[in-house]
Amino acid sequence: MARMSGKVAFLTGAGAGIARATARAFAREGAKVALFELDEAAGRSAEAQIRAEGGEALFIRTDVTDDAQVKHAVERTVEAFGRLDVIMNCAGGSLQEDRPVHLMDIDTWHRTMALNLLHPFLCCRHAIPHMIAAGGGSIINFSSHLGLKGSEKPAYAAAKGGIMSFTQTLAAQYVGYNIRANAIAPAIVRTERSIARWENKDWLLSDNPSPAAKARITMQKLYPFSVGEPEHIAALAVFLGSDESRMVNGTTIAADGGRSTYLKVSSD
Ligand SMILES: NC(=O)c1ccc[n+]([C@@H]2O[C@H](COP(=O)([O-])OP(=O)(O)OC[C@H]3O[C@@H](n4cnc5c(N)ncnc54)[C@H](O)[C@@H]3O)[C@@H](O)[C@H]2O)c1
Questions:
Q1: CATH number at residue 127
Q2: Domain count along the chain
Q3: CA-angle at 118, arms to 117 and 121, nearest 5°
Q4: 150 and 208 share a domain?
Q5: Catalytic site residue 177?
Q6: 239 exposed, middle or buried (CB, 10 Å; 0-12, 13-18, 19+)?
Q7: Same domain assignment for residues 22 and 127
Q8: Is the beta carbon of 189 within 6 A of some atom in ligand 1?
Q9: Which of 80, 163, 228, 231 has the highest CB neighbour number within 10 Å of its CB?
Q10: Is the CB of 171 inside a 6 Å radius of any atom of ligand 1?
Q11: 142 lines ligand 1 (CB under 6 A)
Q12: Can you give the pTM of this predicted structure?
């Protein structure tokens, strides 16, 4: 029997990267998936791919930083699929303008918080009543190894650190409703975006890279096993979304090949 048979899930940022790979994995495991994505072409292409693979998918164009749009998308999901069991708040990322605190403009801080921290709150706020109605569910948030230890990107690190305590709070507040909340903290995952950003030697040479950026490139060369593919993160998300993880609640799981534990590089 498929591991997510009968479940309905939505995933944010599902047009690309980790969320797209996870939406495909959820669908292969029998879940019906709603794809919340800002980029129309990417969302349609993910929807078509999952349907071609025999899954049930519905693209809903959504800016997940907008409360009214999130509310609408959640309602559309329940209207189309009848219930809601699993939500994966995955859209996120850092901005190039996210630089040392005294050099950063306020807009960069707000935009980073909106995408990485406000959006999971908005999704939870509208989804939880439906999950309670379904008798329980699983919330999967996205942190980062940078949220565990700070970084040269202060806004992104603060948002991803906030996600961990938000996740613990969700777990505590909704355990009585059989709703679990966990977060995944990846390090380097080879999405199209990260490949373009980190494996582009021109960027490395042309942008006067910081010691941290140089260290990151070096680590990728030295420890290729610490660099993941979106499918590796999707496998963990399937576990968290399925009932197999019923005893896992309130945790942030580092999915980084061990990087946060034993690779003693102070500034990657
Ligand atoms: N890739 C990595 O190396 C890495 C490392 C650590 C943490 N993470 C975290 O994992 C998560 C997924 O990262 P990824 O690399 O797969 O992302 P990605 O950049 O590959 O994809 C993000 C998707 O989100 C969409 N999106 C952006 N803003 C949106 C908005 N306002 N509303 C709706 N959709 C929007 C984009 O169009 C895109 O399709 C993020 O939260 C990221 O911070 C990623």
A1: 3.40.50.720
A2: 2
A3: 95
A4: no
A5: no
A6: middle
A7: yes
A8: yes
A9: 163
A10: no
A11: yes
A12: 0.94
Residues 15 and 26 reside in one and the same domain: yes
**Tokens found for residue 73:** 């998308």
DSSP for 69-95?
Answer: HHHHHHHHHHHHHS---EEEE------
CA distances from 7 to 26, 137, 201, 239, 253 (A): 9, 9, 43, 13, 23
Domain range spanning residue 90? Answer: 8-189+229-254
Distance 14 CA to ligand 1 centre (A): 8
Residue 170 falls within a domain, yes or no? yes
Instruction: Name the average pLDDT for the chain.
Output: 92
Whether 80 and 168 map to the same domain: the answer is yes
Q: Does residue 92 have its Cβ closer than 6 Å to ligand 1?
A: yes
99 in the same domain as 27? yes
206 and 74 housed in the same domain: no
Task: Return the ligand 1 atom nearest residue 94 CA.
Answer: 43
Q: Which of 11, 38, 47, 117 to mutate to test the pocket of ligand 1 (most atoms within 8 A of CB)?
A: 38
CA 264, CA 161: separation in Å to the nearest integer? 20
- What pLDDT band is residue 57 in, cutting at 50, 70 and 90? very high
Whether residue 259 lies inside any domain: the answer is no
Going from the C-alpha of 46 to that of each of 6, 20, 143, 244, the distances in angstroms are 21, 7, 23, 26
pLDDT in tens, 162-200: 999 999 999 999 999 999 999 999 998 989 888 777 665
